[in-house]
């Protein structure tokens, strides 16, 4: 079924601008220029859930954000069309999977970004669809809840919690799903704590339905590392610990035999990211020339292997004396020091304050301890030690370029522009 994405995007924009008004499907189908039946089908095909459920979800997410800002619960509920706060409460539990109180205690209620299906694919999965898929594991009666990243308030658009023990992930990319399964099995085989993938009742490790692929994993019990806590007491010891466990992960990934894509970070940064940031980021021309020249000289000497690719704090789980990593769907073969560099830059990205020099100075100490911890376990070569600031900045160039021109990430993009300029200004301080 061909989908007029521009027409659906106009409807999404209209919905977003009128969430506090009464909206009918008949009104929306007329605006889109389709029959009612055809509009229902087109909307669900493009967005992933029925139109009225989508409207309900958007109202709930905006409502919980307003409540987090101190607005009265009853006023928020009434403004979004509920007759009572109890009605809002029940709807929130049914759709999001948490009570409002628990949600606000556990997570930051971030202002919802505007959905733009013209800029990127969005998978907005209904609970009914998830329950239908969970029949394959005989878990269709389990509680389903959103996966929310606590400190940022971001809601995953590719995973849901299933009960207390499982998480189901979904993607249109079969290669990504297979990679998650293969790496999980490989890490488990060498004794590393990983999110164990669970076979269906028919013995399959993923389910295909209508162009999407689903995989169920056992949740690693424990807590994600919180960026805010890294800066508190014993911050150097915490940073050292992060470096050491990322180093242990590197050693484990070097032992497994899994097919992944190659990623040439040098090519990506020099041929794509830097040109894309031209006139968007203030970069001294002589610095840029020197940076690219030396990075090219170092690159071939850097050890390369399978890496996690996204070891941000929310993907590191700790539980007493145990630890593990989740979300290997981005894993690829690249320079191995990418992972500790990414872990350090992710901490900075989630806590960056340009007008707080003391905090930035503390981050440099944290960054160094992560690298020292990694070196203590994985033994950096001399070329790797010299290349650390080059890889750190390369990742920053690439991330900033990727966030550019995406409405969803406007705030993150602006932070990363400032971060990139700050890293360039303090490049000498990033040398180990």
Structural commentary:
The structure is a single chain. With about 425 residues, the chain is an alpha+beta fold. It has 3 domains: about 5-120, Arc Repressor Mutant, subunit A (Orthogonal Bundle); about 125-220, Phosphorylase Kinase, domain 1, CATH 3.30.200; about 225-430, Aminoglycoside 3'-phosphotransferase, Chain: A, domain 2 (Alpha-Beta Complex). It has 17 helices and 10 strands. The protein has helices spanning about 5-15, 25-30, 35-45, 50-70, 75-80, 85-95, 100-105, 125-135, 175-190, 225-230, 235-255, 265-275, 285-300, 340-350, 355-380, 380-405, 410-425; strands at about 145-150, 155-160, 165-170, 205-210, 210-220, 225, 305, 315-320, 320-325, 330-335. The strands form 3 sheets. Strands 1-2-3-5-4 form a 5-stranded antiparallel sheet. It has a 3-stranded antiparallel sheet with strand order 6-8-9, with no helix packed on it. Strands 7-10 form a two-stranded antiparallel ribbon. A hairpin with a 2-residue loop joins β8 and β9 (about 320-325). α11 (about 235-255) packs parallel to α15 (about 355-380), α12 crosses α16 (about 380-405) and α13 (about 285-300) crosses α16 (about 380-405). It is globular and about 65 Å long. The model has no long low-confidence stretch (mean pLDDT about 95).
